[in-house]
């Protein structure tokens, strides 16, 4: 047989025979779920808790000045970026590349990445599976003071492993 190879679907997770009413709709509330002192906001579109751990989806809006994390990786989650507006610089493990509206970046577990944006650029962040990223975002947005030991523990707890910047 010729043609493309096909990967099978994952095992069934729904075992009914008629389907069910289980869809839900997220409507913006007008206020973001987090707001940093530098103007960065994050809106929780679908948390890991809401998706039974399958994924977490967030709308990230940068403030007026450049911000974003230095290169790092995650051991348990993949991270995806979809740029909605403006320009976002993403570190792809080798270099910083400019991503524009409509650009999509996939970073598998262990993939070194970072991102930077300004001027109210906006992107979607998708984590799979859906880890508890909300505490990470909220703690950083509050700008809590942490000792080096507390910060190291916080990062390990949130599966964030820093690498030397290029």
Q: Do you know the CATH topology?
A: Jelly Rolls
Instruction: State the CATH architecture.
Output: Sandwich
Relative helix content: 10-25%
Overall pLDDT score:
94
Structural class, please? alpha+beta
Which overall shape is indicated by the principal axes computed on the Cα atoms? globular
SS field, number of helical segments: 2
Write the H/E string, N to C. Answer: EEEEEEEEEEHHE
Largest sheet: 6 strands, antiparallel
CATH top level? Mainly Beta
Beta-strand segment tally: 11
What does this structure look like?
- With 166 residues, this protein is α+β, with helices and mostly antiparallel strands.
- It has one domain: Jelly Rolls (Sandwich).
- It is built from two helices and eleven strands.
- The chain has helices at residues 133-142, 148-157; strands at residues 34-35, 41-46, 56-61, 72-73, 78-85, 88-91, 96-99, 104-107, 114-117, 122-128, 161-162.
- A six-stranded antiparallel β-sheet has the order 1-2-3-10-5-8, with helices on one face. A three-stranded antiparallel β-sheet has the order 7-6-9, with no helix packed on it.
- Strand 1 (34-35) and strand 2 form a beta hairpin.
- The longest helix has 10 residues, at 133-142.
- It is globular, with a radius of gyration of 18 Å.
